[in-house]
Structure formats: structure tokens, C-alpha cells
Design a protein that fits this description.
Helices cover 45% and strands 26% of the residues. It has 9 helices and 12 strands. The protein has a 4-stranded antiparallel beta sheet. A 4-stranded antiparallel beta sheet has the order 2-7-4-5. A 4-stranded antiparallel beta sheet has the order 9-10-12-11. A hairpin with a 5-residue loop joins strand 4 and strand 5. Helix 4 packs across helix 5 and helix 7 packs across helix 8. The protein is globular. This is cAMP-binding domain of CRP or a regulatory subunit of cAMP-dependent protein kinases.
């Protein structure tokens, strides 16, 4: 597992204890890892691949919340508060995950301070990121909103290839536009302008940032 997030924050002993009680599961593209409204019976740790997180609004619209990659923990909130799943997690590509039964994860978190502390760090980081997302994307011009959105994806899940940064696109154009609080047409126009300026290029479910400094400037 090429670790980021929760898994990389754990020590070798904590990783070993979680692995001992975990089962390995594989998911194909489009498979649902957990569904909004279901009872939480496990916590998942992504080993490979990417998954997107979506939620349904009261008026029935599906909203993209974020994307998770290798090393990320999924489904921990519903296990902690014994509530229902607050979002649906869907594989964007082939995904392999460790699944730990809810009762085992709760017991280990209470027994092992290292696991509990790493979980607290991840939750705090996500709260900060969510607040920054609303500040960055919730205001400013349409080009700025799109640039801020792409910068967030790059920081969270970008992979460097020399001077370029490659990002897996976590949803459709309509979903990304909804997250940026703009129309799909506006999102398409903004990304077309970025392509014309050589800031980005796009491919099937992927986006490559060629001029990260310029994108950062546009996002301010």
C-alpha cells in the first residue's frame, strides 16, 4: 500500500494489528464500497485505486464530496457514532481494500492510543479541508472557483510526473460543476480556457496540470 493519510500516520505495530483483523476485498470500477443510509458494519482502508464519495441532497441531487486514494480510511464516522452511512463510496477504478469489522475497529481504537490519535488527526484534517473548500470554491469568479477546485484535487491526490501533476477525475463534469457551485456549461468553458492557455490537458477520467504555479495563482 503506497500510503497517504491515515495509514501512513500509523506506526508498524498499529498497522500490523489492524491487518490481523482485516479481510482483503477487491472492487471493480463502479462497484459500491458502502452506501449512504446503510448501517455501518465495517471500516475500510484503501490499498490501491481511487474511490469517489457522494451524497444525496434533500431535493434528490447527487453531490460529489471528494475522492479517496491508497492509504485513506473510509466509513469511520458511522462506526464511531454508531449511525448510518452518511455518504456513498464508489470505486473509480479497480480498488483493493482492507475491511475491518466495526466492533474490532472500535475495540482497537479504545485499546491502542496510536490508532485513536491518528484517527483524530485525519478527522481534523478533513474538517479543515472541508472548511477551506467552501471558502475557496464558494466565492469569487467562475475561473477562480474551477482553479481552486483543481488545486484541491492536485494537493489531495495528484501524482507528480516531472513538472506535471496528474489527477484522477473523481466524477462527471456535471458533478464537478455542482461541487464548484456553477453550471456544467460554465465548468466546461473554464477548463477549455485553461487548456487553451496550456495550464492543463485532459484525457479519459484524468487531468494533467502542466503549469501548477499558474493554476495556483488563478485560484487565489
Amino acid at each position: 500500500m503506497e500510503s497517504t493519510g491515515f495509514w501512513s500516520a500509523l506506526g508498524p505495530a498499529e498497522r500490523a494489528k489492524l491487518t490481523e483483523v482485516a479481510a482483503v476485498r477487491s472492487y471493480g470500477r463502479g462497484d459500491v464500497l458502502c452506501r449512504e443510509g446503510d448501517r455501518a458494519d465495517s471500516v475500510l482502508f484503501l490499498r490501491t485505486g481511487f474511490a469517489r464519495i457522494t451524497s444525496v441532497t434533500p431535493d434528490g441531487r447527487e453531490v460529489l464530496i471528494g475522492v479517496r486514494g491508497a492509504g485513506d480510511v473510509i466509513g469511520e464516522l458511522a462506526v464511531i457514532d454508531r449511525g448510518l452511512r452518511s455518504a456513498t463510496v464508489t470505486a473509480l477504478e479497480e480498488v483493493e481494500a482492507l475491511t475491518v469489522p466495526a466492533a474490532r475497529f472500535t475495540a482497537l481504537s479504545r485499546k491502542e492510543p496510536g490508532i485513536a490519535w491518528c484517527l483524530a488527526l485525519v478527522l481534523a484534517e478533513r474538517m479543515r479541508a472541508l472548511g477551506k473548500q467552501w471558502l475557496d470554491i464558494g466565492g469569487g469568479t467562475i475561473p477562480r472557483r474551477v482553479a481552486a477546485q483543481l488545486m484541491q484535487l492536485a494537493v489531495q491526490h495528484g501524482v507528480r510526473h516531472g513538472v506535471d501533476v496528474e489527477v484522477v477525475i473523481p466524477g462527471t463534469q456535471a458533478e464537478l460543476a455542482m461541487t464548484a457551485a456553477i453550471s456544467r456549461e460554465s465548468w466546461v468553458r473554464a477548463t477549455r480556457e485553461l487548456r487553451a492557455r496550456g495550464v492543463i490537458s485532459t484525457g479519459r477520467r484524468k487531468l494533467t496540470i502542466h503549469r501548477i504555479t499558474e493554476l495556483r495563482r488563478l485560484a487565489r
